[in-house]
Protein 1
Amino acid sequence: MPIVTRPIRYAHGGIIFEAFATWDDAAPGPRPLVLVAGTFMGRSRFEEGKARSLAELGYVGVAIDVYGVDHWPADADQARARMATLDADRAELKARLRVALDAALAADAPVDRAKVAAIGFCFGGKCVLDLARSGAGLAGVVSFHGLYDAPPFPNEAISAKILALHGWEDPLAPPDAVLGLASEMTEAGADWQLHAYGHTVHAFTNPAREGMYSPAADARSWQAMRNFLNEIFA
């Protein structure tokens, strides 16, 4: 299985961004595109690994960049500052996400443009929910231990199906925030579902997060994502 990787460079607002694209070069024909939005650390080896795993499942995986190559954080403190800047300007975050989607669709990769989804982890979970809120033409989005606060402006019509994969004891998304997301998606008329994992906290998919990683929730959530992608791309 020859998994190939390619950088995707593009500009927005005077900033250069670089996404990481990967797919199985031996498989014939176009296949669905799945964007991967990263944690507060941005596009890292973790997200690139998830993109590769998607390539092995038969998709084109693209780990996107929301900070820009000259603004990639060197440590967690820088990453929190970068994330806070975008949290404070959700319109700019939305613009960067839409540009990343357009760049992935325009790249030289074997993409079926009619079949597009996005997954995200932590801050990236918020990002993919914001892509859905923006009215982007996605079949679906999957938020892994995401952040659920809605942007301070009205949503566009949400056509993407929504899957939220949540650690019930996540201190960054307490029960009130979960209920807020459920109410928001219901009022928007979205097709949404939520899987909550008991005795599970934030970052449950990341083996590097000692005390937070849950092998069981990691495996269950990845399988739930696979089932969801199979459904929306059928």
Protein 2
Amino acid sequence: MNKIDLFKEFKRARDERPLSPAFLVASGDRYLPISWRQFTDDIAVIAFIIEANVKHGAIGILGENSYEWMVVHAACLFSGSVAVPVDVNLNADEIAQRLKSVKARVLVHSSLFSVKSHDVAARMPGLITGSFGSRKTDFFLNASKKAIELGLKTIWSRDSVDVERTSAIVFTSGTTSEPRGAELTIRGIETFCECAASVLPMSPSDRSLMLLPLHHIFGIATTYLMLVRGVALGVCPDFRRIYDAVERFRANFLFLVPALAEILAAKISQHGDSAAEALGSPIDWILTGGAPQPSCTYEKMKRLGVKLITGYGLTETTSLYSLSSSSGLYKPGSAGLVARHPEVETAVSEDGELLIRGPSVMKGYYKMPERTAKAIDKDGWYHTGDMGRIDDDGFVWVTGRISRTIVLSSGKKIAPEELEAKLLALPGVLETIVSGDGAKREVVATIYGDAPEEALRREVVELNKTLPVYKRISRVNVRTSPFPKTASGKIKLNPPDEIQTR
């Protein structure tokens, strides 16, 4: 397995292929390339500003996927400060709460979120805010560029950076619990890149898109992977236009959340019998992560000539635990092959919990020692909270969250995720959550679908006939609208009361 040094890879691209495109940015009916020289020059300028004003401080980044977002993030990593990606779906109070908790001094944002940024600043006296492309930001950029032109050294004159320090604090998505800030390192990102590069072929002649939200670690890790492999990255800030972006940029492969994979499959089907016919060029593979992949989407993509594979990881493990190979054996329904890395170990506890240790595991939850001690044991194993198994071929099967396991008064245990997978395979079922009351021995399924309610209920009745008695669904609620979701595509397990079922 080839070792990856993120900082040196950026320097090498800057020196050896300065005119090669790092990014492709849409402009009218064309796209404009941004070269590696321009990209690394911009990183150097932002890093210069950071070191002159907020060295080693925490810097919030709020904005849609963009070239500027990645410039700021990379500058934070290489300058010694701490990047704090901010979920764009949060309100001002939630953002302020997170930034206060990590003592952030600066919030950099896109123009689209200027109002929200202003509202955050009103809740945090002393917070410095700056917008991509604003007049105030341009003043600092121009001053820094002049200083560099006069001979002041930039980060690219250095030989290395500290890859073991906390370089990012990424908050967990928080579907059921209070979000926690995971302290991640550059070495963690490098470890993900090393594992992924060994099973996912990509080269400087390839093109792809930034389609995963950059405020989540899966989006961040896969973007750095593609950059160090020399892939030209198209910028797509509006996920609703995914089909147009994939067609326009002629993407060779993609990283997506399952919800986007389903949308893309539907769009391709409307335009042709295969991805190659609809888009004018084939998609070699799509890797999904962040949430379980429904089997129906896998089958749709297969019919369209696209290999759909999966990966599994968590914020706390820098998105690493298992990855499918794009060219080798893949078992549908699995989370791919366990990470093959000399410094990464994976295991299953006696209770059936998936464990991992190695450089990809977080240093801890920021300023939360008790939470950290519960998550990482004295031997360095991170406890994922996911139940599962690793088969003889090394494939990982995630069967459910420990916190969601339904324990019946009879002592029987039910993994809601197992039943959810079976429900999602039924005609007309698009989304579902299974819950239960152990004392009453009651299993409840809440369903959102595109079939009539009676048809959905009949399907559940037929499913029950195939299940052991204790696993049978005793009550069905049918929703009138999709479930609320986190930005990574996970269903929020405590949806608002105002969204009613039938």
